[in-house]
Amino acid sequence: QVQLVESGGGLVQAGGSLRLSCAASRSIFSFNVMGWYRQAPGKQRELVAHITSGGNTDYGDSVKGRFTISGDNAKNTVYLQMNSLKPEDTAVYYCSFADLYYNVYWGQGTQVTVSS
Predict the structure, then answer these.
(1) In what side-by-side order are the strands of the sheet with 77-82?
(2) Helical spans, DSSP H, in the chain
(3) Is 50 strand, coil or helix?
(4) Bridge partners, 6 (sequence order)
(5) CA 38, CA 101: separation in Å to the nearest integer?
(6) pLDDT digit string (tens) for 8-43?
(7) Beta bridge partners of 57
């Protein structure tokens, strides 16, 4: 069973930055796609960013140019660097990895709160 552990959430003022980490219990080489999602109160969960095993990235329209997803194979960790944060970025952020057999794993979530 794969475990994903997120960290790095917290409270930040608008315009500030945070870096989220998602550490996997096995090599990230074994995953096809690794991504970050978020869910704000009363809203559906939405894709924030994802990165493929080949290094291709994609971002939700609302975060393009502000957020960057990256991976560190040596640490089995995927990061989400979030800059120029806005109050509307407030949500619980989840990492989610899909492996070669289309199994999907989720982390427990980390709260990000951006104050105005």
Answers:
(1) 4-7, 18-24, 77-82, 67-72
(2) none
(3) strand
(4) 22
(5) 24
(6) 999 999 999 999 999 999 988 889 999 999 999 999
(7) 51
